[in-house]
Amino acid sequence: MSNPLARLLKRLRGSKTEQDERQEKPHVFVKELSPRSRRHLLRHFLALEEKDRLLRFGSKLSDDMVTRYVEGINFERDTVFGVYDRRLRLLGVGHLAFAPKEATRISGATIKPVVAEFGVSVSAAARGLGVGTRLFMRAAMHCRNADVDTLYMHCLSSNKVMMHIAKKAGMEIHRDYGEADAYLKIKPANSATVFQEALEEQVAMLDYIVKANFKALLKWGARVTGIGARKKDDGAPPPAA
Ligand SMILES: CC(C)(COP(=O)(O)OP(=O)(O)OC[C@H]1O[C@@H](n2cnc3c(N)ncnc32)[C@H](O)[C@@H]1OP(=O)(O)O)[C@@H](O)C(=O)NCCC(=O)NCCS
């Protein structure tokens, strides 16, 4: 792992040696998204295969329904996290939806007024690199800092990868008719968790800006030299997500 910012973050999370770092998966920067990311979100979700849409949304959504879902995301109430690749395509998306506890299936699991439900998806080509786990961990930290003590996930119990991530995080899992409800009890925040989340967001923002500038530079270079120019750019100018 060559990125010094990533190394600093790893060290803040725990004591890791250089050798540990070399054996680990590449560092994943998780960034909070804004309504300006809707176009990126839509592209990510529409690229999911039918079976993955089923796992992610619990039913086989058509393209129209996926479009309506993306248009309907309430960024003021919920928090959406994303992981971008070098070309500013979303490799992974985690949607943390907050709801009054009475409106959920787990109203008895918390004394807090609000619970959070998490849904996550990672592009097929980016799986197994730790993206899903990092999105989940970031969502859990966000809940902690938002005074939410219960993180809830609903998925098919046949979803072995998600079950693995849930168990690894220490979630309590209840299975019922092929479906699973998983809960994670979250500890109260402290100044270190608040600082860590703020730092992670700053680093992810920096990473995004570097990628956006590099992409703009490549595009400019292609226009000036005519090398690598495409009829239609697949990224378009990136929104400041
Ligand atoms: C579930 C999903 C988000 C995981 O994303 P990911 O980035 O591949 O996950 P990670 O790389 O962080 O972790 C995968 C873990 O599962 C493990 N795993 C992979 N295949 C497995 C299997 N068949 N059985 C058990 N564990 C498995 C990996 O070894 C890894 O564990 P480790 O970190 O302990 O080594 C992704 O597969 C996805 O988008 N699936 C479709 C949508 C979905 O299922 N969403 C969840 C419902 S809300």
Automatic annotation (TrEMBL):
Domain of life: Bacteria
Gene3D superfamilies according to UniProt: 3.40.630.30
Organism of provenance: Herbaspirillum seropedicae (strain SmR1)
Transmembrane annotation, as ranges: none
InterPro entries found in the cross-reference section: Acyl_CoA_acyltransferase, GNAT_dom
Keyword Transferase: yes
Stored PROSITE patterns: GNAT (PS51186)
Protein name according to UniProt: Histone acetyltransferase HPA2 protein
Keyword entries, A-Z: Transferase
Pfam family, one: Acetyltransf_1
Residue stretches making up the N-acetyltransferase domain: 28-190
GO molecular function terms listed in the Swiss-Prot or TrEMBL record: acyltransferase activity, transferring groups other than amino-acyl groups
